[in-house]
Amino acid sequence: MAMYLLTVPYCYIREVRSPLNDTLVAAMGLRVMNAQGALHKDYPTQSKNLGDHRHHTTTAIDLSYLDVDVPDPTPELPDGGAIYWTLVLTNSADPGAVTDAEKIVIGLLQALADKQIGAATNLASLIANIGLIGLGNLLGLLTPGRCDGIVGALNLNFTARELAQMTSDPVKVNCPGTDSPIGCGSNSNYDLYYVIAPPPPPPVLVTVPDLIEQSPARARQLVEVAGLLLRTSEEKVLPQGSSPRVDSQDPAPGTQVGKGTTVRAVIALPVDRGLPP
User: Fold this and answer.
1) Is residue 232 part of a domain?
2) Are residues 117 and 28 part of one domain?
3) Domain finish residue from 138, 165, 197
4) Would you say 237 and 277 are in contact if contact means Cβ atoms under 8 Å apart?
5) Domain count for the chain
6) Which secondary structure element, helix H or strand E, spans residue 220, and what is its range?
7) 173 in the same domain as 231
8) Rg (CA), the chain
């Protein structure tokens, strides 16, 4: 079973819907189906208030699903499982907008998985489909002000076979807005970006070598052979004429750490000539 990272990192605002600022709310949902078309897993809806933003700006959204498991294709079912992924970005200063946006996302996911609507990103068709699936009342709750409304949306459907062919590059989806009422700004125009990528591989674990009593040169050699980094500090605590050596280290010898971890070591040095140890 393949594992994926799904994220909507940011959007670019070409034009806002309001005269000055859009007050943005983002809500996102994910449903995964198995190769037979039955529900595999519903992921929790995510939402976020993004604050006020003007046109010609890049705005962070940073909503993600980590370790999304999608059933693999089989010889009998070559498409494998599928994801149904929806994000709705709205302009609304109403405190209840987050909850209402989440309800719309859940309704769209259900309708998308049930094939009541297609994986459309055009806002006009998306809003029309919201009415078709019985969420028109929620859209009214979401837009209490004359300039409020949906300014961007992703409504995506990919099979496991399609996911396996994707790269980690951000994909841009332009969302030109529907007609804004008189007195508002221009029609909103947003670019949404999404990324589908395999999660990073787990770290390669290595064992921290025992550096205690080793010379600084030997300690550095042991650390480098293990694939680790060394950072040292010094203390003048040894009698005059003694050879420098490692007095302590962190992490302790034998600890399992990720390759590339920094090991900190204290090097004991002899005191300066003429000073007592």
Assistant:
1) yes
2) yes
3) 197
4) yes
5) 2
6) helix 216-225
7) no
8) 28
- Range(s) of the domain holding residue 31: 2-197
Does one domain contain both 178 and 55?
Answer: yes
Do 189 and 219 lie in a common domain? Answer: no
Q: What burial letters (b/e) apply to 230-263, b meaning 16+ CB within 10 Å?
A: bebeeeeebeeeeebbbbebeeeeeeebeeebeb
Per-residue CA distances from 223 to 190, 231, 264 (Å) = 50, 10, 10
Q: Which of 153, 176, 197 is the last residue of a domain?
A: 197
The pTM assigned to this predicted structure is 0.70
> Do residues 223 and 240 touch, judged by C-beta distance below 8 A?
no
Q: Are residues 66 and 162 in the same domain?
A: yes
Residue 275 covered by a domain: no
Q: Which residues pair with 5 in a beta bridge?
A: 197
Please tell me whether residues 122 and 220 are part of one structural domain: no
Q: Is 250 within 8 Å of 210 (Cβ atoms)?
A: no
Helices 123-132 and 97-113: crossing angle in degrees, nearest 10, is: 80
What is the rounded distance in angstroms from the CA atom of residue 227 to the CA atom of residue 239? 33
From first to last of its 277 residues, the chain has per-residue pLDDT tens of 678 999 999 999 999 988 889 999 999 999 999 999 899 999 999 999 999 999 999 999 999 999 999 999 989 999 999 999 999 998 887 777 788 788 888 888 877 777 666 655 567 767 766 665 566 555 555 555 568 888 888 989 999 999 988 989 999 999 888 777 777 878 889 999 999 998 777 789 999 999 999 999 999 999 999 999 999 999 988 888 899 999 999 999 999 999 999 999 999 999 886 555 5
DSSP 249: E
- Are residues 184 and 162 part of one domain? yes
